[in-house]
Amino acid sequence: MVAAESAADTLPQVHAAAEAYRAGEYERAAQLWTTVLAHEYLPAAERGRLCHNIGNAAFRRERPAEAVAWYTASLRLRPRSGDTWANLELARTGAGWDPEDRGDLGATLRRLFTSLTAPEADAAALLALALLALALGGEALRGGALWRRAIVAGLLVLALAAAWAVGSRLRETPDEWLVTAREGTSLRSEPRPDAVSLGRLAPGARGLAVDELPEWVRLKADDAPAFWVRRADVFALER
User: pTM (2 decimals)?
Assistant: First the structure.
């Protein structure tokens, strides 16, 4: 029989990665953390921590755009990590990109309603439904202003929970890729360097993958037709 993998199996690699990082061997540390990240059994929070660490290693190697990508991937898994948010903004500055959180009302609301993971948002929605059902039952059985106010409160909580659920799924869009190449990436009609150029995507732009080859990824952005880009120029945010 083959023994099932457990978290303990990866501990030596995690310790070795931390030691390599402290010794300034950032490339080796990133490789070890990436190896651990390949284990599918890891919980989301642990995967988020690994992405954060790999981002730190990339930043130490003066690869700010790559660090941005890893921190962004980490926040999809741990959206309330203050350290990751701080490092993300530092890396975006180093890459010459605009801040992720501009500090205006729109950015604040977006950060608020993407602060839960999808499972957390689903749990909040179920709790809101239970509270609303309790309030409706109380009003039906006993009536009174108190229960009517409870119904209104339950509806408000349910609306907030729904907003969190939508926000979490927008942030965790599957198959989303980020352009990390310093000069952006050229859009090709076919997966080869001499294919017709359809324009360029700027650094930091995003697209959804609709097809993949070993060296190319076919993306779709906004309402434009799908196009091919070099895999080396983009980064898969789903980890």
Answer: 0.80
